[in-house]
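Teaching assistant's notes for section 4

Start the section by putting this record on the projector. Ask students to predict, before seeing the second block, whether AGE family epimerase/isomerase will look compact or extended. Collect guesses on the board.
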Amino acid sequence: METLTPAANSWLTLPAHRHWLAQQGQRLLEFAKAARIEDGFADLDNRGRPVLASGALTIQTARMTHSFALACLQGIPGSAAMVDHGIRALQGPLRDARHGGWHASARPASTSRKQAYLHAFVALAASSAVAAGRPGAAALLADAVDVLERHFWCEAEQAFVESFAQDWSDQEDYRGGNSNMHGVEACLALADVCNDAKWLDHALAISERLIHQHAAATNYLPVEHFDAHWQALPDYNHDRPGDEFRPYGQTPGHAFEWARLLLHLEAARHRIGLANPSWLAEDAQHLFAAACRIGWAVDGQPGIVYTVDWQQRPVVAQRLHWTLAEAVAAAAALYQRTGDASHERWYREFWDYIDLYLIDREHGSWHHELDTDNQPAQTIWPGKPDLYHAYQATLLPTLPLAPSLATALARQSGLG
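Reveal the predicted structure now:
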């Protein structure tokens, strides 16, 4: 495997561009600090005010803890206190002291379930906090790893199962592409922080099933929904096409995200001498090409549509900010891996779009959703709760494909 050095005139190497990325990252962090409330971190509205009615949310607390751990590793003042607050929340009011694992919020409903998606982010947050050397992080990580291994990882299926009731009964007869994708992300981080290559084998097994088998058979857009036997459910949520986490159809943004993760996985395995199948890099390129062809400007306006049907026609044409964050990160990763100038051109085009349409210079952060005319909208993602996607997009282009984010930053800072 060869990772290429970007050309001298690439944006990825230009000092002014890297300075711009750093400024954008710090601007996002400053906006996100307002999400801190007593029991963790809350959603933020469009002006950066915490949505107190919902209280502290575990998904936001985990993502904020992870993001501020990355900032801590960069030497951004004030970040360590945010990480420590997140650790305390995840060890306290957000944790299920009776059954183990984590509630969805500090005020859990009796019907809420324990989701693999959420627990993957708790593990990611804990691993990043360990890399940052924060107190209490190692205990949180041990707890998160135990829950993942005890309840969510299925050795027989070589994948993560989806959800349970609060007492770990009633396993859901559904398998999710989204949760397993973020499971791969968590596995990459755990392999580095725990120094355990089994997580890379887990990540490879998931990727082979979801991408090399299923996505390769459907024009290289990931299949999102499966039954308990890993048979695709093409009509799943047909009546709820704009669902935040389980939308009907296929999601071009996830093709970008998977493309990047496959390259990180390939680089991570190569770095410690593990064998790699050739399809990791090949499928990453196919995923990126399909997402650009099927998702970008397909309705005559710039931007990436949220979902398409099985004939690759737009279903939900709103533009969500996270899809652009993943697109720009995938373009950077593919350019580093292949040296193909077309990926660098896409990298520039995606950042130009972000700068023109998504960055909110009046109230801060990025607009999380735009309509088909690229005007701010709130039908799917109200407010601006998400730091994680945009902030990572400012970091990933500046780092190697392996090790994973927190470990790479720790090594730069001398902590790793």
